[in-house]
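@channel sequence for tomorrow's demo:
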Amino acid sequence: MSSGTGRKVVVTGATGNVGTSLVRILSEEPEIASVRGLARRMPEWSPPKTEWSAVDVASDRFDLVEEFAGADAVVHLAWAFQPTHDPVTTWRTNVLGSLRVFEAVAEAGVPALVHASSVGAYSPGPKDRAVDESWPTHGWPDAAYCREKSYLERVLDTFERDHPGTRVVRMRPAFLFKRESASEQRRIFGGRFLPGPLARPDLLPFLPDIPGLRVQALHTDDAAQAYRLAVLSAAARGAFNLAAEPAVDADLLGEMLGTRRVRLPRTAARSAIAAAWGLRLLPASPHLFDAVLRLPLMDCTRARVELGWRPVHTATQAVEEFLLGVRQGAGEETEPMRGRKVG
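structure tokens (generated this afternoon):
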């Protein structure tokens, strides 16, 4: 780590979608002396003031206390979305790995922990109005992603009680997109059998309009700016909703893509997803589909007022940039974010 007088920040999951944006932003921040990025695979990418450590947070072979020693803040982003057919494996990485991170933060005496929670931690909620951070965070129990995010909210409740001297921030972003994340997200959710060049509006005969499919989106760089503000603000504590306007639904997507909308019952859509997931043609599970239909819309007033955060990109711009990236096979210089049009 740098011996400068600025802050020293450790970022887990530093080579993923949010991690690459955050590391880049922190490396350009004058108040940050050094950034240590933790990732399972060392990247070729070398931003200023940044060092890398090859670390699997879920494995006890790695000494996280040593990695966190001397840090002013740890930003915990590491997360595994797959394999969706093996929730024990994702639980081991996402939950048990997070527990190791939290324990190491306390043992190393790190003053601030900024944790990547999610809109997926929220209990089912309304689609016609926005809820604030007081909405219950019990998730949707049938979806592993929501179950894990919700469980960690309870873990952090206990952590804050037992370690009042540690400043804990929980970020709850909406769906995060940027051009460079397109290939990774296509592989995670669409699978390796979906070629990026086929994601063209003229090839869509129609756009399914599914009841309840109304969600929020955010450009990843805007989310990373919120993380930066949370690291730098000594007063920032607790949960912050992060999303951009407008809400994304079939009407908005239809206008963006110039494609007609066709009403499709939930049961029909779910059956198709369940069949493709059961045949291992589609990585995204029907359980996650169920959860998405029930996610509440979030009110982001607290982030604006207390962090001074405002997204630069609209949700429409974030989705358009992502779709362009899918067609182009866009990516980053890290293993999880490799650009590929197919495979």
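heads up for whoever presents: The longest helix spans residues 87-108.
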